[in-house]
Design goal:
The complex is a heterodimer of chains A (111) and B (814).
Chain A (H helix, E strand, L loop, with lengths): L3 E6 L7 E7 L2 E7 L5 E5 L13 E3 L2 E3 L6 E3 L15 E2 L1 E4 L2 E5 H9 L1
Antiparallel strand pairs in A: 1-10, 2-3, 3-4, 4-8, 5-6, 6-7, 9-10
Chain B lengths: L2 E6 L3 H13 L4 E7 L5 E2 L4 H6 L4 H4 E3 L1 H6 L3 E4 L3 E5 L4 E4 L2 E4 L2 E4 L3 E3 L12 E2 L4 H11 L5 E5 L3 H12 L3 E5 L12 H13 L3 E3 L4 E6 L3 E6 L4 E3 L2 E4 L3 E3 L2 H5 L8 E3 L10 E3 L4 E3 L2 E2 L3 H15 L12 E3 L7 E5 L7 E8 L4 E8 L2 E8 L5 H10 L24 H6 L6 E3 L4 E2 H9 L5 H8 L9 H12 L19 H10 L5 H7 L11 H12 L13 H5 L2 E2 L5 E3 L10 H13 L4 E4 L5 E6 L4 H10 L12 E6 L13 H12 L8 E6 L13 E6 L2 E6 L2 E2 L3 E2 L2 E6 L2 H18 L6 H8 L1 H10 L1 H18 L3 H5 L13 E2 L1 H5 L1
Parallel strand pairs in B: 1-2, 1-9, 2-5, 9-21, 11-18, 12-13, 12-18, 13-14, 20-22, 35-36, 36-37
Antiparallel strand pairs in B: 3-4, 6-7, 7-8, 10-19, 15-16, 16-17, 22-23, 24-25, 25-28, 26-27, 27-28, 29-30, 31-32, 32-34, 33-34, 37-38, 38-41, 39-40
């Protein structure tokens, strides 16, 4: 069962930018692409724990600010030579509001 | 017994629905049709050509009163329905009460009037119906009349082009970064803007309207940034809103539009809705194709036949004469998607096809839309295009077979074919020069001038070399800036200057970018090149900056930041020290460190504390030290004549003057300076990007030092007699570095590439050039010599950007 919760307005995140949502188990980064797609992934880079929300957003990818690992926002997979993956979360935009699936977050804290 | 069908709204959707219904069964229903406009049904899509004077009203009528009468429709035109009573199954209008068995709401949509003061002044019109067009035509008769169109979407641009045709001076104000942002990507939006501007239409993007001014009649539009656009007419084309008031009052389920299921049924089993007023599967439609699909489905539903509305792929074309533009489907970038991009900057053509699993899912075309219907049909059929993928972008006419050899095409060119347009160099001249020994690009540039100006023909010149020399010639592989383009840093800088490219989409279009919005390598470089070349025109793009420059603090390994206030020339005061100590206490700063650049660093600051800490430090008179930027860092000094018994000049004073001159400037990489008061060189000036050593007779300036990954001593640039000259030489050197170095090349690397003599010629010997460099530097500093902390610590500057978007720690713990 999905539990959509209203997080914020789409306009609260700059285009090609990100903001974080705090959860009991660390931050989730919410990205907005140049064409207003929205993605939610774990904010922490698996390499050296860099904050992915501070990376440069290009297409549907983000580059970690610490050591330039690039992640696919849809799958959470590291691109190119690097190997790793970050967790992704269901998210949607409804009437300009960003809705995040909280059931996954709860499941994560239970696990 | 015949059932009573009442329809509210006599627009295109209900017109088509009645056509379909009468086709199926002419006599099933006794139809009453209400229309708020005092006329029958006309083709609203053609209002733009009417406005432009290419068509008249009679041309666009689809169903006149005669047609409706012929089908026994009781027409109630000019009579608005004011209320629906669902319990009694009645509608109320000026002339009384009408009963229904089935009701169809087709009230369409209304122009969205942006909520600013003055939006109800006479002269402010929407663009939805014939009355709006009549109002615009009246305004267009004002001699030298001015029109402002708010909204650079489909409708707004059609209105703008038409009013321009009618002789008005037109300005389009668009909120987003590029025109038609819902249908076009930035590259196509850029080409469209170029075309409209060449017709004399002024286009302002990222335009925030503050108010519409005027007393009895609209007079001007005021922008947030204070700009005022004079206006005799304001056209609101900022979007449409489904007209849902009647449905709302009647208690039907309404979200953005009247919510309907696949059969167009509302939350009431006897009430249907159709057209632009409905919301189906969370989508509201504004283009005609899906509305006609709805009409078909509703006619079937009313006949009791099973039918379902499926959201179709919708394509867009702009109805402006001479502008070829097409977009369909989903053209956003995304994972598992691939794109094929074709750009021909010379002819202003841009085509992009987006693929997923070898199927076309979206297309954007500008300048040449001849193949649009072919591609649209492939998109709709969802066919696998793997076999024709290589030639897909060239359309169905492309001959099947082996791709032609590009060198053969060049070899076949006649001798008088022009290769370099800037300098008018023909193929024959190049071949002759090659015969005389100019066997590489540099030699050809020197002897023929081919590719020596804008550089866009470099590839062609290389191909002429290759085809003339045969196997002996190997095209040198110049390192492109990144995988997004084949151009080098130098090519890009030259193109930005020569082609006057002032936005990132413009550069990406003209320089053949293969991705739609670049990557982490090219975007920061482009951002710097653009702001360095066009300081007044280009708006810095925070999202193309590395985290440190976006957050104006240095990110640390644990995601905290360091905060470092500027200490001019390394001087400080007890008050400043107290303020730094207070800030360290207040924000629990774990580490305080004195840096090599003669200032104090506060390490381990949390992101959300940054603006507050800055505000506190600003309060004490301190500004950002830019310890994080590709820009001026510090000017290190010794105490000079003030206290030192060896000091020859006021080195501290000069250091402070230089720092005040240079602070805030962006450079290709970081810039560090030092001024020593005597040759003992306590400020270590000889390992800086620029160092000054004071001597009795004046100032020795040297450049190109480094004390990082490489250790390098500076080389002498010049010796000057006065402090003023030392300051001018410094500014000129920094500006030359800004204008010519590759992004991320420190000054020493750049000097090694261009040669110190080349630098001396411009900065030291050519006095006019030195003055011009200083002027250009000062122009840029008029924009950038400011404290980013003060700007971003204010509540007005999105103070909330520093905090989390939401805190779910409680919810998640439950």
């Amino acid at each position: 069962m999905r539990t959509w919760i209203d997080i914020a307005d789409l306009s609260d995140i700059p285009k090609r930018g990100a903001r974080v949502v705090k959860t009991a188990l660390g931050c989730v980064a919410i990205f907005r692409t140049d064409d207003d797609r929205v993605y939610a992934i774990d904010d922490t880079c698996p390499h050296k724990q860099g904050p992915l929300s501070e990376g440069i957003v290009h297409g549907a990818s983000v580059t970690c600010p610490l050591h330039n690992w690039v992640f696919d926002l849809e799958t959470g997979m590291a691109q190119g030579e690097d190997v790793g993956q970050v967790a992704t979360f269901d998210i949607q935009v409804l009437n300009g509001r960003i809705m995040l699936d909280a059931s996954r977050l709860a499941a994560r804290s239970a696990a | 017994m015949t059932q009573k069908l009442v329809i509210i709204g006599a627009g295109m959707a209900s017109g088509r629905m009645l056509e379909e219904l009468f086709e199926l069964a002419p006599d099933t229903y006794d139809v009453t049709l209400f229309g708020a406009e005092p006329r029958g049904n006309y083709n609203r899509i053609m209002l733009s050509p009417v406005l432009a004077g290419e068509k008249c009203y009679d041309d666009i009528v689809t169903h006149d009163a005669k047609w409706y009468r012929g089908h026994n429709v009781n027409c109630r035109f000019g009579e608005a329905v004011v209320k629906i009573d669902r319990a009694r199954k009645q509608v109320f209008s000026a002339n009384g009460v009408t009963s229904y068995d089935k009701l169809v709401i087709a009230t369409g949509s209304a122009s969205f009037f942006i909520p600013v003061a003055g939006n109800d002044l006479p002269g402010v019109v929407g663009f939805r119906d014939l009355d709006d067009v009549t109002a615009m035509l009246t305004a267009a008769q004002t001699p030298a009349g001015k029109a402002v169109v708010i909204g650079g979407g489909l409708l707004g641009l059609e209105a703008a082009a038409a009013l321009n045709e009618r002789g008005m001076q037109v300005t389009v104000l668009h909120l987003m970064g590029h025109l038609m942002d819902r249908q076009l990507d930035p590259a196509a939006g850029y080409l469209l803007q170029q075309e409209l501007q060449s017709r004399g239409i002024q286009v302002v993007c990222k335009a925030h309207t503050k108010a519409i001014l005027g007393t009895d009649q609209v007079e001007a539009v005021l922008m947030e940034d204070g700009t005022v656009h004079g206006a005799d007419l304001v056209v609101m084309a900022a979007g449409i809103r489904p007209e849902v008031r009647l449905a709302n009052d009647a208690g039907l389920h309404v979200e953005r539009g009247i919510v309907v299921d696949d059969t167009l049924l509302t939350s009431d089993p006897d009430v249907f809705a159709l057209g632009e007023c409905v919301e189906h599967d969370r989508t509201v439609y504004g283009l005609v194709a899906p509305l006609f699909d709805m009409a078909k489905v509703l006619a079937q539903t009313l006949m009791g036949r099973p039918a379902g509305f499926i959201a179709p792929a919708v394509s867009t074309k702009l109805k402006v004469t001479g502008v070829d533009l097409f977009s369909v489907g989903d053209f956003a970038e995304g994972p598992e998607r691939e794109e094929i991009v074709f750009r021909d900057p010379g002819r202003g053509i841009y085509k992009r096809i987006i693929l997923r699993d070898n199927q076309i899912i979206g297309t954007v075309m500008y300048g040449d839309t001849a193949d649009s219907s072919w591609l649209f049909s492939k998109l709709k059929s969802g066919e696998d295009i793997s076999d024709i993928r290589d030639t897909l972008i060239f359309g169905p006419a492309f001959p099947v077979g082996a791709p032609t050899d590009p060198l053969a095409t060049i070899a076949a060119l006649p001798d008088d074919a022009e290769i370099c347009g800037c300098n008018g160099v023909c193929k024959g001249a190049i071949v002759t020069a090659i015969g005389k020994g100019a066997t590489d690009l540099a030699a050809l540039k020197a002897t023929t001038k081919a590719s020596a100006s804008c550089g866009s023909c470099t590839g062609l010149v290389e191909k002429v070399l290759a085809s003339t020399l045969g196997d002996t010639f190997v095209i040198p592989t110049a390192q492109p800036i990144c995988g997004c383009t084949d151009m080098t840093h130098e090519d890009l800088r030259r193109m930005i200057k020569s082609q006057r490219l002032k936005t990132m989409p413009a550069v990406m279009q003209e320089c053949g970018w293969k991705t739609s919005c670049g990557c982490h390598s090219c975007r920061p470089a482009l951002n710097f090149y653009l702001l360095a070349e066009w300081p007044l025109d280009y708006a810095d793009d925070a999202q193309s900056r590395f985290v440190n420059e976006r957050n104006h603090a240095n990110i640390q390994k644990d995601g905290t930041y360091s905060v470092l206030p500027r200490m001019w020339g390394g001087m400080t005061t007890p008050d400043e020290l107290r303020a730094i100590a207070d800030a360290a206490d207040k924000y629990d700063v774990p580490a305080v460190k004195v840096t090599g650049g003669q200032r104090i660093d506060l390490l381990g600051v949390k992101k959300e504390d940054l603006p507050h800490m800055w505000a506190d430090l600003n309060e004490a008179g301190m500004v950002s030290g830019h310890a994080y930027s590709k820009g001026l860092r510090t000017v290190k000094t010794c105490v000079g004549t003030d206290f030192c018994r060896f000091g020859t000049q006021d080195s501290t004073g000069l250091g402070i003057k230089l720092e005040k001159l240079l602070w805030g400037s962006w450079t290709p990489h970081k810039v560090k300076l030092a001024v020593s008061g005597c040759p003992r060189n306590c400020a270590e000036a000889t390992c800086k990007d620029l160092g000054i050593i004071c001597v009795e007779s004046g100032f020795e300036i040297s450049v190109g030092g480094a004390a990082g990954m490489e250790l390098k001593q500076t080389e002498a640039l010049a010796k000057v007699a006065t402090e003023q000259e030392a300051i001018e030489l410094t500014a000129a050197f920094i500006q030359l570095y800004r204008e010519h170095a590759r992004y991320l090349d420190r000054a020493y690397k750049w000097v090694a590439k261009v040669g110190l003599d080349w630098v001396k010629e411009r900065v030291v010997e050519d006095l006019a050039e030195r003055a011009a460099l200083c002027d250009r530097f000062e122009l840029s500093q008029s924009v950038y010599r400011k404290d980013p902390w003060a700007e971003q610590a204010t509540p007005a500057f999105q103070r909330d950007k520093w905090s989390a978007l939401a805190d779910l720690t409680l919810e998640a713990a439950e």
